[in-house]
TrEMBL record:
The chain crosses the membrane at residues 48-66, 72-90, 219-237, 257-283. NCBIfam families: ATPase_P-type. It is a multi-pass membrane protein. It is found in: Cell membrane. This is Cation-transporting ATPase. Residues 108-201 form the P-type ATPase A domain. Its main location: membrane. Keywords: Membrane, Transmembrane, Transmembrane helix. InterPro entries: ATPase_P-typ_cyto_dom_N, ATPase_P-typ_P_site, ATPase_P-typ_TM_dom_sf, ATPase_P-typ_transduc_dom_A_sf, ATPase_P-type_domA, HAD_sf, P_typ_ATPase. It holds the Pfam family E1-E2_ATPase.
Amino acid sequence: MNATLNLPEVEENGLTASQVRACEESGQTNAVKSTTSRSILDIVRANVFTLFNGIIFAAMVLVLITGSWKDAVFGFVILINTGIGIVTELKAKRTLDRLSILVTSDYAVRRDGENTEVPSRDIVLGDLLWIRSGEQVPADAQVLSSYGLELDESMLTGESRTVRKEDGDQVYSGSTAVSGVALARVNAVGEHSYAATLTAQAKVYKKTVSDLNKGINTILKFMTFLVVPLCVLLVWSQMRTVGGWNAAIASGEWRQAIVSAVAGVVGMIPEGLVLLTSLNFAVAAMRLARKNTLVQELESVETLARVDCLNLDKTGTITDGGIMFDRLVMLERMDGDDRVESAATQALYDLSNEEQPNGTGQAVLDGLGERGYHAGPVRARVPFSSARKWSAIVTPAAAAETESAADREPPTV
């Protein structure tokens, strides 16, 4: 066994090199494609080909045909409105592509009777995987031999309490080993693992229904049926004013007639309302981004604005699952004595100040450290054990008092 990995002795040999190559050739590896359900082309198409852009673009083309490009400046509303939507949704796509529950790291596997470390993406189906304390489980597996393994499955289930795993139990990718070690056989990798399934569900694109945009589109649909005959009527009236089509074409007055007709029609389209709505959505999305909130689509801001109450589940899934030190409550017979409370608080700090404190110990160190407490002199230490359910320290003062009491006692005959 490779002693540098500090792992227990086992009889299992694991996969051979030829079996690993066969799994890699068949695609049974732990590599996961980080793509969303919405491509860049879909985002561009959804923001470019809208009813509003179609109406404004058609009007701009008519004006450009006349050669009066200065009168077609209103067409920049298309670029601004489309650009806001594309940029915002591309940022959301980039964030989703990077979204992953699993942390990329190296893991110990047993192959050909030897323990070796490989990247998480190189783990294959059927590998014998060592799950060690402090590591995240990279793939679904079944425990073959457990040496006190306890897992934190809060990221998957929302339950913050650790779960002890015995031989034969199933472990899922995304959970974290908080203590112990285990040898497990991988039975699901890559896109078939539990964590990859959760990540894929988070990346699924769902069309947001915006009542505000729905109302604007209803107005635009009504205007479409009204604008076309109105535009024809305005052009016809302009032609009659200049003496008919032949006279308008001969004198070039047809250009001004079309520009005037388009100006009358465009003035009826709520361009400012559409642009103002997009700008408000974009500003709201940027503010939410500063709060680490992902906005996949601009219209989802309106949905959030209609929320009256937000319910969160148990600690661990939406929240970070951390704990904080609040206060130390003294027993009634000791309450009110500042010296005793200060000594007890210092003792609590020293008890938690181990080489590798657990989550509770680290919370105590952080909380008391902010209140000015520092490590005191510790002469001896008995680490915490779940079997005896206590830990202890010996301070120089306590040791001196014990030695003094022992000196005062008469020798036993």
